[in-house]
Design a protein that fits this description.
The complex is a heterodimer of chains A (358) and B (272).
Chain A lengths: L12 H4 L6 H21 L2 H27 L7 H18 L5 H20 L7 H21 L12 E2 L3 E3 L2 E4 L5 H24 L1 H11 L1 H6 L4 H28 L1 E2 L1 H4 L2 H14 L4 H25 L4 H22 L3 H15 L5
Antiparallel strand pairs in A: 1-4, 2-3
Helix pairs in contact in A: 2-7, 3-7, 3-8, 3-10, 3-12, 3-13, 4-5, 4-6, 4-10, 5-10, 7-8, 7-10, 8-10, 12-13, 12-15, 13-14, 13-15
Chain B lengths: L7 E2 L5 E2 L2 E12 L2 E12 L3 E5 L6 H8 L7 E6 L2 E2 L5 H6 L2 E4 L11 H7 L9 H6 L3 H19 L15 H14 L4 E5 L7 H18 L2 E5 L3 H7 L2 E6 L2 E6 L1 H6 L1 H8 L5
Parallel strand pairs in B: 5-10, 5-11, 8-9, 9-10
Antiparallel strand pairs in B: 1-2, 3-4, 3-6, 6-7, 11-12
Classes of the chains: A mainly alpha (358), B alpha/beta (272).
């Protein structure tokens, strides 16, 4: 009853092309932002930040990045883990190389470096499509992990071969290192996550997004109306790489603190983020959040229920967790191949007509 | 004969401009198959030029040469008084040549509005950063071009479906959306590859009206391929007839209708 366009007249094209055309959605969005920025930081503790919020925010950024490439531009990538590693190592080298510069800029620069690397590995996409491109990006995944393992310069010749984030502050509050307070880490990631979502949304509803979707839907027709496939695809790789790089940098510097590349950024990570995008919904920013939430929160929830409430042994719960999550993914993909975002869209369409659907 | 630089006046009194595009001795081969053999014709500014011919005559290949999908082995394409170097399709599009396809080539996952907006690619030049922030040039362009696109949407009477994903539309409307997308580019030349294929009489009448209106209101030069002879003869100012990759006729609809080679090509001829 509250959820409809009726009475909410748009008198300009700016109004008409906004992200949330329905008033209720708009207010809901402001409320979510308000809660996320003004209330959550005061009430969360260490467990919530590390188990739920940080991975959710960071994976959301990665999923948004991958969604631009796979969901909007139609270029399948299995190199996400490798590209996240680029972000992580870039931010590490910058943090240790230029300690006087704020980490805020380091993280952004790490995104930029990842964008460049991503464009390099995106070059084959001009010649090859579909599964073959996926295999080419898989090569990127293995090559990058190998590179960061084998070239000591990347980990500053440390004996363990690991990289660990030195302590860095913003406005006098530590956001990386052992002294970090949970709310500081949370806010730092939240700023990047919210900014990423807004920027990605603007890009995808504008001409850049139209070019990408045109390439995805029919590349020949895209060319005939003047889309340069080279620039459209490479810009998708660049933007996608930027967001994935951000998430890699935050994943290492803020969330884990210390990283061994094969473990943290292996092929598993690539698949995890790809699953998030597919389950969440290809070609939807909301879907990226939904997918990240599904794959981050569900295991936590299951663990709490199985171990905490039912009191089952941890190892049994861990195995059951795999089975249940895997099973749910299959069920979801059969029931709604277009992901959670499509469910959400259908629900909204129903809600607009409720309570008189005919 | 027509003068290359001067225009002419059609039977119904419309003034046609000078030559805007000229195909000179185009030959296109695929391996051993010659799809187009030594064809020359010109297109005047503001006219409706039809290319007709039986199946496999090379009409679509000709359109593909014009729009840059194929580069002919021999011959030259002259556009706006200059010889055109070999080009990619998107470069041709940026010169102001738009087209539609025989079997609709729309972006199914996007809304009608977004589909038509993609046609404005030539006019929208804001950088990625401006687009990402949705400020300054990007926002201004978005509004200006939206206003233009709405005019096209009004013109083709597809207002009611502007926010519908194209994949959900019926065939006739898709054809119209494709025309809208081509028109949104404000092309100097519009290539239509069988705009009426698969339509019933009513839809054909609608489409014919749109083609004439486009030509009339925007002054767009139109090159069209069509199989429905009634439509072709009614719409076009001049007709090129192709058969087996060769040009067998060129002239006004009446001239073509009386041409013995054309009649033979369409009706078949007795071999003795």
């Amino acid at each position: 009853m509250f959820y409809r366009e009726a009475g909410d007249f748009k008198t300009s094209y700016v109004d008409d092309s906004q992200t949330f055309p329905i008033k209720f959605d708009r207010y809901r969005y402001y409320v979510v932002l308000l809660i996320a920025f003004a209330i959550v930081p005061f009430v969360i503790n260490d467990y919530w930040v590390n188990a739920v919020f940080l991975p959710f925010l960071i994976y959301s950024i990665a999923a948004i990045g991958l969604n631009i490439l796979v969901g909007y531009c139609g270029q399948v990538s299995l190199g996400t883990g490798g590209f996240m590693a680029v972000g992580a190592y870039a931010v590490y080298k910058l943090m240790t190389g230029f300690p006087e510069v704020s980490i805020f800029f380091h993280v952004i620069a790490a995104g930029g470096i990842t964008a460049i690397v991503c464009v390099l590995f995106g070059l084959p996409s001009l010649r090859i499509k579909g599964f073959y491109l996926a295999v080419a990006t898989l090569a990127a995944q293995f090559f990058l992990v190998w590179l960061f393992n084998r070239v000591p310069w990347f980990y500053n010749y440390s004996a363990s071969g690991q990289i660990s984030a030195p302590e860095r502050e913003i406005f006098g509050v530590a956001v990386t290192g052992a002294e970090t307070l949970p709310w500081a880490a949370y806010l730092f990631c939240l700023v990047f996550c919210a900014a990423s979502a807004i920027l990605a949304r603007n890009l995808t509803r504008g001409m850049a997004g139209r070019k990408w979707m045109a390439i995805r839907d029919m590349d020949i027709a895209a060319e005939i109306i003047g889309v340069d496939p080279l620039r459209a695809k490479l810009s998708a790789f660049a933007i996608s790489g930027f967001f994935v790089g951000l998430s890699g940098a935050l994943f290492f510097a803020v969330y884990l603190g210390a990283v061994e590349v094969g473990e943290a950024f292996g092929i598993n990570k690539s698949f995890l983020v790809l699953f998030m995008v597919i389950i969440g919904g290809l070609g939807s920013i909301f879907g990226s959040f939904a997918g990240a939430a599904f794959l981050v929160l569900l295991p936590v929830l299951l663990k709490n229920v199985l171990v905490g409430t039912l009191g089952w042994p941890t190892d049994l719960a861990a195995h059951l967790e795999f089975m249940i999550v895997g099973g749910l993914i299959v069920v979801f993909l059969i029931a709604e191949p277009h992901g959670l975002a499509q469910l959400w869209r259908v629900a909204k369409e129903k809600l607009r007509l409720w309570p008189f659907p005919h | 004969m027509l003068d290359a630089t001067e225009g002419y006046t059609t039977e119904d009194g419309r003034k046609i401009g000078g030559v805007v595009m000229e195909m000179k001795n185009i030959t296109l081969r695929f391996g051993g198959v010659t799809a187009i053999e030594d064809i020359s014709f010109d297109v005047h500014e503001g006219e409706i030029r039809a290319i007709i011919g039986p199946n496999g005559a090379g009409k679509s290949s000709m359109l593909n040469v014009i729009s840059g999908f194929y580069n002919p082995q021999e011959g030259e394409v002259w556009y706006k008084g200059a010889k055109r170097p070999p080009m990619k399709p998107y470069q041709v599009a940026r010169q102001g040549i738009a087209r539609t396809f025989q079997n609709i080539a729309l972006f199914e996952g996007m809304t009608v509005l977004d589909n038509v907006m993609t046609g404005r690619i030539r006019q929208m030049k804001a950088g990625l950063l401006s687009q990402a922030l949705w400020k300054g040039k990007a926002e201004r362009e978005e509004v200006e071009n939206r206003a233009f696109v709405e005019k096209i949407i009004d013109f083709l009477e597809i207002q009611h479906i502007r926010k519908t994903p194209v994949g959900r539309l019926p065939y006739g409307l898709k054809k119209r959306v494709e025309l809208a997308r081509a028109l949104a580019a404000e092309p100097s030349i519009l290539l239509l590859d069988e705009p009426m294929a698969g339509m019933n009489v009513e839809e054909k009448e609608d489409m014919s009206r749109f083609v004439l209106d486009v030509n009339d209101e925007f002054g767009t030069t139109i090159v069209l391929i069509e199989h429905d002879m009634g439509v072709v003869m009614d719409l076009s100012d001049r007709v090129v007839v192709m058969d087996y990759g060769k040009k067998i006729g060129d002239g006004t609809p009446d001239e073509v209708r009386g041409n013995q080679a054309v009649i033979d090509a369409y009706l078949g001829v007795a071999h003795d």
